[in-house]
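COMPLEX REQUEST
Ligand: 4'-deoxy-4'-aminopyridoxal-5'-phosphate
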Amino acid sequence: MSYEMSNILFEKAKTLMPGGVNSPVRAFKSVGTNPIFIKKGFGSHIEDVDGNTYIDYVLSWGPLILGHCNPRIVNALKNQLESGTSFGACTEIEIKLAEKIKEAVPSVEIIRMVNSGTEATMSAIRLARGYTKRNIIVKFEGCYHGHSDSLLIKAGSGALTFGTPDSKGVTSETAKNTIIARYNDSDLIVEIFKKYGEDIAAVIVEPIAGNMGTVPPKEGFLKTLRKVTESYGSLLIFDEVMTGFRVSYTCAQGLYNINPDITTFGKIIGGGLPVGAYGGRKDIMRMISPDGPVYQAGTLSGNPLAMVAGYETLNALSEDPSIYNELDKKADRLCMGLYESMRQNGIKVEINRVGTMMCMFFTDGNVHDFETATKSNTDLFAKYFKAMLKRGIYLPPSQFETFFLSTAHTNEDIDRTIEASFEAAREISA
Ligand code: PMP
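STATUS: Structure written out below.
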């Protein structure tokens, strides 16, 4: 496989953009190789600028649950394009998508569209603070909620501490209002609430963590969050930017039967176009401007192209009741095969999966939080990533990312991937 054109473009990109990219993981830094530049996508596949094709398990980091260039989405977009790309004014399609989401997710009574997951979580935090008139938020180590200041905080020394900024430019004053807790640790969250509960505006959580690899919630964890926030008058925010319409049509909250106060969305509800949204209980959402005193706005919010792509995606997902079952079966086939490829070559891995969110950790033990996730052998992952890439399999270029499937992935794609994984396992264990 030649990467000549990709390498030329990357050299040029580096002279124009930080690290040559518009979002850090795209630079492939943690796998120690140059990124590929993508020319086009079709179904379950992408093609790079050198003409190499790959089975795509990144799917734009989750949005493309119907695969690339699904004809239904493409047609809907073409129709919308001919009527205009943006008005910054009211359109009917915003109502249609809002209704569609509300139908699927009963905890969402009122919803506001924004342009990214980051905007959604940032606005949800502001809303929670405005509603409760409290300052502190609790987030979990290893959960990512976009890059707004108060969420870009990492754990200090040990849990039950206020965090420290995770990025230069985030002030320690901001970090002081964010408490970092341990994912899946119900006892700790109860402790935190005993100590600070009266001042906590909200707990924000990925109901299935997808940004430290995939880490499902332990039995009872989300229930504890629901209970403790309720009893202290704090809000529970489910960040379903990744899980929303990915793990089931009723999202993670439907899967685990927990109603949060606010939910954030992104990815799938935009069908591959830039989108985000936050919604929840009516009395809380009525605090948002122009109904209430919490300000939030956007020139391109509710953009008709994004709304159309999202609406058609949700239509496709809701019309065929077997879709999620089929996806689940395919994901199971894939994970079983990947596991075997490692086991037969003496490589210890732990695979976590919920529906079509999955991750293969190069580690020996159970992965249930940030600490256990980071025990993974990232050097071995990097070798595996490269061995798969050269065999035409495009995995997320980091150990701590989730990979996805789309309805366009066939059993043939999966079997080819497993075959490649056997070869890759032999190569990296040699
Ligand atoms: N929340 C979660 C759970 C995410 O996975 C992401 C992005 N991967 C975000 C928020 C931020 O979304 P965006 O990149 O669209 O700003």
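REMARKS: The first strand starts at residue 38 and ends at 42. The chain has 14 helices and 17 strands.
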